[in-house]
UniProtKB/TrEMBL annotation:
PROSITE patterns in UniProt: FLAGELLA_BB_ROD (PS00588)
Family: Belongs to the flagella basal body rod proteins family.
Compartment annotation: Bacterial flagellum basal body
PANTHER family on file: FLAGELLAR HOOK PROTEIN FLGE (PTHR30435:SF1), FLAGELLAR PROTEIN (PTHR30435)
Heme keyword on record: no
Start and end residues of each Flagellar basal-body/hook protein C-terminal domain: 387-431
Residue stretches making up the Flagellar basal body rod protein N-terminal domain: 6-33
Residues in Flagellar hook protein FlgE D2 domain copies: 187-313
Flagellar hook protein FlgE/F/G-like D1 domain sequence ranges: 82-123
Gene from which the chain derives: flgE_1
Protein name per Swiss-Prot or TrEMBL: Flagellar hook protein FlgE
Length: 432
């Protein structure tokens, strides 16, 4: 027995202790992947024969990382993102590209989403209409715009097959039990004269909604409904606080056709009503949009407004973000609007074991890893994302402590073989 075997055992055990110690040191590192030492024996052969002469000890052939899934922990940061399944976040720092499982992100002063060591997260940016730009090409750094989202005027949308989708939509019930009012016949018992917004006796019901011009300024459109005959309702409007010029003056003009219902209380014609007025504020004029009454009914229950929807909104600034399972970043704005502003991509490799460890929880592409394959989360062999969460290290701390004891015993045993060899040699030296 020589010193070679014991020394090789000490070297292998020392490297095993290094790997175990590194695992324990990073047991709280987000996205960390534990390592293990892998060993092989060493033998010497004679020149004349292939038969084994003697074992020469052991050696560490590799320290490999184990890319198993870590536990998912919830956080309070919506930009913390955990990967469930395969894949890596693609990060860039200038021209340098790296990959990580650490999803602890924040926004830098320029609005870029960055990791805790400063690299920028990449993906597909979206335009103002939430359409992905350069999808399928090289992912680019994702940036949250800190500026205003801009305003959108209340309007209408052309629909396939003709017709329009109303920019302002009411859903209500007009009370069928209300008595009809007569504006024109002075001999009628219920003659009420011209509509007066200040006199509730001159109309049956009213409701209001806000609409927005091209500069995002809010205006109030009030609609007055007057029952003039069975199943028939007159509709007049008032824009802001004063009657507007013809044909939208509710006092002197009838801007809309009557709204009629069938004997079952269903709306006979749900074609949107047209509204138009002149603005002098500098916003786009005429200010025109369609008002829809689809879903409005006439039953014997009291008047009530069930829904009000309109497609305009004022200006707003970004107040928060959320990330869905497919990586779409949804911006939340102060005007109540939500808009998709980008999509996080994931990258995978044929051989993750071939990635080069760059430190800081980052890996680099190598020839052994194969080329990167980048796509949307949840597609192909890529995992999905979980917002406001992080992936813990996949270190089993209990198991590592047991491994530490085993490696320590192995180290001590190899040291004993060296000590025994030294004792034998000392005996030989002491021969007289």
């Amino acid at each position: 027995m020589g010193f070679q075997q014991g020394l090789s055992g000490l070297s292998a055990s020392s490297k095993s202790l290094d790997a175990i110690g590194n695992n324990i040191a990073n047991s709280s590192t987000v996205g960390f992947k534990q390592s293990r030492s892998e060993f092989a024996d060493m033998y010497a052969n004679s020149f004349a024969s292939s038969s084994t002469i003697s074992g020469m000890g052991g050696r560490t052939v590799a320290v490999t990382q184990q890319f198993g899934q870590g536990n998912i922990t919830s956080t309070n940061n919506p930009l913390d993102i955990a990967i469930t399944g395969n894949g890596y976040f693609r990060m860039v720092d200038g021209e340098a590209v790296s990959y990580t499982r650490n999803g602890q992100f924040q926004v830098d002063k320029e609005g870029f989403i960055v990791g805790n060591t400063g690299q920028k997260l990449t993906g597909w940016p979206f335009d103002l209409n939430a359409n992905a730009l350069q999808k399928g090409g090289t992912p680019t750094p994702l940036q949250l715009a800190n500026g205003n989202i801009g305003a959108k005027t209340t309007g209408w949308t052309e629909v396939a097959g003709g017709g329009v989708s109303a920019g302002l939509q009411f859903g209500m019930n007009l009370d069928a039990s209300q008595l009809a009012k007569d504006r024109t016949n002075p001999l009628a018992a219920n003659y009420v004269g011209a509509l007066n917004p200040a006199d509730v006796k001159t109309f049956t019901n009213s409701t209001s909604a806000q609409v927005y011009d091209s500069q995002g300024v809010a205006h109030t459109l009030t609609m007055y409904f007057t029952k003039t005959a069975p199943n028939t309702w007159e509709v007049r409007t008032r824009f802001d606080s004063d009657p507007v010029s013809a044909p939208n003056d509710p006092v002197t003009n009838l801007p809309y056709p009557n709204v009629t219902f069938d004997s079952n209380g269903k709306l006979v014609d749900n074609t949107p009503l047209s509204f138009s007025t002149t603005l002098t504020s500098g916003a786009t004029t005429p200010f025109a949009f369609h008002v829809g009454l689809e879903g409005t009914t006439q039953y014997g229950s009291p008047f009530g407004v069930n829904t009000i929807k309109q497609d305009g909104y004022p200006d707003g600034v970004l107040t928060g973000v959320a990330v869905d399972r497919e990586g779409v970043i949804l911006g939340k704005y102060s005007n109540g609007q939500n808009r998709a502003i980008g999509q996080v991509t994931l990258t995978n490799f044929t051989n993750s074991q071939g990635l080069q460890n760059l430190g800081d929880n980052r890996w680099g592409e190598t020839f052994a890893s194969g080329q990167p394959r980048t796509n949307d989360p949840g597609t192909s062999d890529l995992g999905s994302l979980q917002s406001a969460s992080v992936e813990d290290a996949n270190v089993d701390l209990t198991g590592e402590l047991v491994n530490l004891i085993t490696a320590q015993r192995t180290y001590q045993a190899n040291a004993q073989t060296i000590k025994a060899q030294d004792t034998i040699l000392q005996t030989i030296v002491n021969l007289r």
